[in-house]
Amino acid sequence: MASRSTRLNPWPLDAEMIIPRLLPLLIVALLSSCGPTRTPLRLEPHDDLVRVHVENLGEYVSHITRIELTRHVGGDTVWRVESVGDSFEIYNFDLRVGINESNLPVSRGSACTVLPRADRFVLAPGESYDIRVCAYGWYMRCAKKRLVMPAAALEFRFELQH
User: Fold this and answer.
1) Among residues 28, 58, 23, 15, which one has the least CA distance to residue 40?
2) Cα(72)–Cα(137) distance, rounded to whole angstroms?
3) Do the domain assignments include residue 17?
4) Residue 56 domain-assigned?
5) Domain hosting residue 67, numbered range
6) Domain count, the chain
7) What is the pTM of this model?
8) 102, 121, 139, 140: which sits with the fewest CB atoms below 10 Å from its CB?
9) Where does the chain have alpha helices with state H?
Protein backbone atom coordinates (compact mmCIF):
# COMPACT_ATOMS: atom_id res chain seq x y z
CA MET A 1 0.00 0.00 0.00
CA ALA A 2 1.35 3.47 -0.89
CA SER A 3 2.09 5.85 1.90
CA ARG A 4 -0.18 8.82 2.45
CA SER A 5 2.53 11.42 1.51
CA THR A 6 3.13 9.74 -1.88
CA ARG A 7 -0.54 9.81 -2.83
CA LEU A 8 -0.98 13.52 -2.03
CA ASN A 9 2.11 14.70 -3.96
CA PRO A 10 1.16 15.45 -7.62
CA TRP A 11 4.86 16.01 -8.54
CA PRO A 12 6.78 12.88 -7.55
CA LEU A 13 10.55 13.18 -7.57
CA ASP A 14 10.82 10.46 -10.20
CA ALA A 15 12.77 11.81 -13.22
CA GLU A 16 10.63 9.84 -15.62
CA MET A 17 7.64 11.96 -14.58
CA ILE A 18 9.32 15.37 -14.21
CA ILE A 19 11.13 15.55 -17.56
CA PRO A 20 8.05 15.02 -19.79
CA ARG A 21 6.17 17.67 -17.81
CA LEU A 22 8.93 20.30 -17.85
CA LEU A 23 10.25 19.77 -21.39
CA PRO A 24 7.44 21.71 -23.16
CA LEU A 25 7.90 24.61 -20.74
CA LEU A 26 11.64 24.68 -21.36
CA ILE A 27 11.15 24.69 -25.14
CA VAL A 28 8.69 27.61 -24.93
CA ALA A 29 11.06 29.56 -22.68
CA LEU A 30 13.98 28.98 -25.07
CA LEU A 31 12.02 30.01 -28.16
CA SER A 32 10.62 33.14 -26.54
CA SER A 33 14.07 34.32 -25.48
CA CYS A 34 15.58 34.14 -28.97
CA GLY A 35 14.80 34.12 -32.66
CA PRO A 36 11.31 33.05 -33.66
CA THR A 37 9.30 35.27 -31.31
CA ARG A 38 11.33 38.46 -31.56
CA THR A 39 11.47 40.92 -34.43
CA PRO A 40 15.07 42.02 -34.90
CA LEU A 41 15.58 45.78 -34.77
CA ARG A 42 18.97 47.42 -34.41
CA LEU A 43 19.85 51.07 -35.06
CA GLU A 44 23.28 52.08 -36.34
CA PRO A 45 23.84 55.88 -36.30
CA HIS A 46 26.24 57.49 -38.79
CA ASP A 47 27.15 61.10 -39.60
CA ASP A 48 23.99 62.10 -41.46
CA LEU A 49 21.84 58.97 -41.27
CA VAL A 50 20.63 56.12 -39.12
CA ARG A 51 20.85 52.64 -40.66
CA VAL A 52 17.97 50.45 -39.49
CA HIS A 53 18.89 46.74 -39.37
CA VAL A 54 16.09 44.18 -39.38
CA GLU A 55 18.04 41.08 -40.41
CA ASN A 56 17.91 37.93 -38.28
CA LEU A 57 21.20 36.81 -36.72
CA GLY A 58 22.96 39.64 -38.54
CA GLU A 59 22.66 38.17 -42.04
CA TYR A 60 19.27 36.63 -42.82
CA VAL A 61 16.37 38.65 -44.22
CA SER A 62 13.33 39.27 -42.07
CA HIS A 63 9.74 38.83 -43.20
CA ILE A 64 8.19 42.21 -42.41
CA THR A 65 4.52 43.22 -42.54
CA ARG A 66 4.76 46.86 -41.43
CA ILE A 67 7.27 49.63 -40.67
CA GLU A 68 6.09 52.81 -39.02
CA LEU A 69 8.01 55.95 -38.07
CA THR A 70 6.32 58.42 -35.71
CA ARG A 71 7.42 61.61 -33.98
CA HIS A 72 8.25 60.87 -30.35
CA VAL A 73 6.58 64.09 -29.24
CA GLY A 74 3.02 64.21 -30.49
CA GLY A 75 2.96 60.74 -32.04
CA ASP A 76 2.29 61.95 -35.61
CA THR A 77 3.02 59.27 -38.20
CA VAL A 78 5.76 60.49 -40.54
CA TRP A 79 6.21 57.33 -42.64
CA ARG A 80 4.37 54.03 -42.85
CA VAL A 81 5.05 51.09 -45.14
CA GLU A 82 2.89 47.95 -45.30
CA SER A 83 3.33 44.69 -47.14
CA VAL A 84 1.31 43.83 -50.21
CA GLY A 85 0.40 40.23 -49.44
CA ASP A 86 1.75 38.35 -46.43
CA SER A 87 5.13 40.05 -46.03
CA PHE A 88 8.18 41.51 -47.72
CA GLU A 89 11.82 40.67 -47.10
CA ILE A 90 14.47 43.23 -46.21
CA TYR A 91 17.91 43.36 -44.58
CA ASN A 92 18.27 47.04 -43.67
CA PHE A 93 17.44 50.56 -44.82
CA ASP A 94 18.67 54.11 -44.20
CA LEU A 95 16.85 57.08 -42.69
CA ARG A 96 18.66 60.31 -43.57
CA VAL A 97 18.56 63.73 -42.01
CA GLY A 98 16.53 65.86 -44.40
CA ILE A 99 14.72 64.44 -47.44
CA ASN A 100 14.03 60.68 -47.68
CA GLU A 101 12.37 58.66 -50.44
CA SER A 102 9.02 57.18 -49.40
CA ASN A 103 9.54 53.96 -51.35
CA LEU A 104 11.39 51.17 -49.58
CA PRO A 105 13.66 48.88 -51.65
CA VAL A 106 12.85 45.30 -50.64
CA SER A 107 14.68 42.03 -51.37
CA ARG A 108 11.58 39.96 -52.08
CA GLY A 109 7.84 40.59 -52.06
CA SER A 110 6.40 44.06 -52.35
CA ALA A 111 5.68 46.94 -50.03
CA CYS A 112 3.33 49.88 -50.32
CA THR A 113 3.89 53.30 -48.77
CA VAL A 114 0.72 54.28 -46.89
CA LEU A 115 2.02 57.57 -45.47
CA PRO A 116 3.02 60.09 -46.65
CA ARG A 117 1.05 60.31 -49.85
CA ALA A 118 3.96 62.21 -51.42
CA ASP A 119 7.13 60.61 -52.82
CA ARG A 120 9.29 62.01 -50.02
CA PHE A 121 9.28 62.80 -46.32
CA VAL A 122 11.58 64.98 -44.20
CA LEU A 123 13.34 64.08 -40.95
CA ALA A 124 14.55 66.98 -38.83
CA PRO A 125 18.08 67.01 -37.37
CA GLY A 126 18.20 66.29 -33.64
CA GLU A 127 14.53 65.29 -33.48
CA SER A 128 13.38 62.08 -31.73
CA TYR A 129 11.32 59.50 -33.58
CA ASP A 130 9.90 56.10 -32.65
CA ILE A 131 10.30 53.30 -35.17
CA ARG A 132 8.13 50.20 -35.03
CA VAL A 133 8.81 47.11 -37.16
CA CYS A 134 6.30 44.25 -37.26
CA ALA A 135 7.16 40.80 -38.56
CA TYR A 136 5.09 38.12 -40.22
CA GLY A 137 3.91 35.22 -38.08
CA TRP A 138 0.93 33.47 -36.60
CA TYR A 139 0.81 36.29 -34.08
CA MET A 140 1.91 39.89 -34.52
CA ARG A 141 5.52 40.38 -33.44
CA CYS A 142 6.62 43.99 -33.24
CA ALA A 143 9.76 45.72 -32.05
CA LYS A 144 9.91 49.41 -31.19
CA LYS A 145 12.87 51.70 -30.57
CA ARG A 146 13.51 55.40 -30.27
CA LEU A 147 15.94 57.04 -32.65
CA VAL A 148 17.36 60.54 -32.66
CA MET A 149 18.43 61.92 -36.00
CA PRO A 150 22.03 63.22 -36.06
CA ALA A 151 22.31 67.01 -35.92
CA ALA A 152 25.99 67.88 -36.50
CA ALA A 153 26.35 66.53 -40.05
CA LEU A 154 23.51 68.62 -41.48
CA GLU A 155 24.80 71.82 -39.84
CA PHE A 156 28.28 71.16 -41.26
CA ARG A 157 26.95 70.57 -44.80
CA PHE A 158 24.81 73.69 -44.54
CA GLU A 159 27.85 75.80 -43.65
CA LEU A 160 29.80 74.43 -46.63
CA GLN A 161 27.05 75.43 -49.07
CA HIS A 162 27.21 79.12 -48.08
Assistant:
1) 58
2) 27
3) no
4) yes
5) 39-157
6) 1
7) 0.68
8) 139
9) 4-8, 15-33, 152-161
